[in-house]
């Protein structure tokens, strides 16, 4: 092939690409991001039952929901120059409500799981957490590992129906396994000596350790490793926006474990 032919082919190909490009219709983007901007409103799905992330006290309007993720939702709306509108969702209907278009972003301490990723998008992680043990401080020295806790002489407690009970059944199988149905008073079971250990999510454990001087978390490293992210519809443009905003919040220092725990303490003191 001589040089002139090559050049000729190059020109032909370029011309073809130009033709394709200019033939493409001037469609508006169909991203959720554009919908939010033109709507002037960001719809934020919250469960309202997970301190410090989102919490709705009985009888309180959903627009007055509180929590660290709620504050982040308001900041995200402000970054877009739109109003934040909160939408009540629930753990069992989280994905269904997202797919029904009831909200643009789910924010309530949502764990990033492959099951969720199969049908939706999850933002970059903003919180690392895992299962952590809480015991009475006076017993703190006895426990340096999960093995030290998983003994027949130890009474464990768990709230039935979630990952805490699953952890108890699988990893505290040698203990005297008890359950307690009331999530609000379950930490008192340990503090008051009815149980010796409760294993729950680290954010919550650290919060209670701060709130109740009788309680300690002697094993700093979590037994499991999970991450939280925000739940989004399958929309690359919207995902990219949320991730950049999240990154900037992180750089600005608004996503520290301390700030989440502080928020949770305030919610407990005010409501529970
Ligand atoms: C794109 O959106 C603008 C503003 O909403 C509207 O005026 C215009 O007609 C739209 N164009 C197309 C091709 O839909
Ligand atoms: C945003 O909220 C303000 C105050 O409630 C209201 O005046 C305004 O109309 C709202 N904007 C939109 C786009 O809903
Ligand atoms: C109590 O906690 C368990 C385990 O995390 C959870 O499955 C359950 O929904 C909670 N119950 C209430 C009433 O919040
Ligand atoms: C297990 O714990 C329960 C609740 O504290 C207690 O009543 C029971 O005696 C314990 N059983 C054993 C074998 O320690």
UniProtKB/TrEMBL annotation:
One Pfam family of this chain: SBP_bac_3
Signal peptide: 1-23
Entry keyword set: Signal
Solute-binding protein family 3/N-terminal domain mapped to chain residues: 41-264
InterPro entries: Solute-binding_3/MltF_N
PROSITE patterns, per the entry: PROKAR_LIPOPROTEIN
PANTHER family assigned: AMINO-ACID-BINDING PROTEIN YXEM-RELATED, MEMBRANE-BOUND LYTIC MUREIN TRANSGLYCOSYLASE F
Protein name: Solute-binding protein family 3/N-terminal domain-containing protein
Organism: Sphaeroforma arctica JP610
């Amino acid at each position: 092939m001589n040089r002139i032919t090559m050049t000729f082919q190059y020109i032909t190909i370029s011309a073809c690409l130009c033709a394709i490009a200019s033939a493409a219709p001037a469609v508006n983007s169909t991203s959720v991001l554009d919908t939010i901007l033109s709507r002037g409103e960001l719809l934020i799905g919250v469960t309202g039952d997970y301190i410090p992330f989102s919490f709705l006290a009985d009888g309180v309007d959903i627009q007055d929901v509180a929590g660290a993720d709620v504050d982040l939702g308001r900041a995200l709306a402000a970054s877009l120059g739109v109003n934040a509108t909160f939408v009540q969702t629930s753990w069992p209907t989280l994905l269904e409500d997202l797919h029904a278009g009831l909200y643009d972003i789910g924010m309530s301490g949502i764990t990033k799981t492959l099951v969720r990723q199969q049908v939706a998008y999850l933002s970059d992680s903003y919180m690392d957490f895992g299962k952590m043990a809480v015991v009475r401080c006076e017993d703190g020295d006895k426990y340096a590992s999960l093995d030290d806790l998983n003994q027949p002489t130890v009474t464990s407690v768990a709230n039935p129906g979630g990952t805490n009970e699953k952890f108890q059944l699988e990893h505290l199988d040698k203990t005297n396994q008890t359950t307690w149905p009331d999530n609000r008073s379950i930490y008192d079971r340990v503090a008051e000596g009815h149980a010796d250990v409760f294993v729950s999510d680290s954010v919550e454990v650290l919060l209670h350790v701060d709130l109740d001087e009788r309680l300690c978390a002697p094993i700093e490293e979590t037994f499991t490793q999970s991450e939280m992210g925000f739940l989004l519809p399958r929309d690359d443009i919207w995902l990219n926006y949320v991730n950049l905003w999240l990154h900037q919040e992180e750089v600005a220092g608004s996503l520290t474990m301390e700030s989440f725990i502080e928020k949770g303490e305030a919610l407990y003191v005010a409501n529970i």
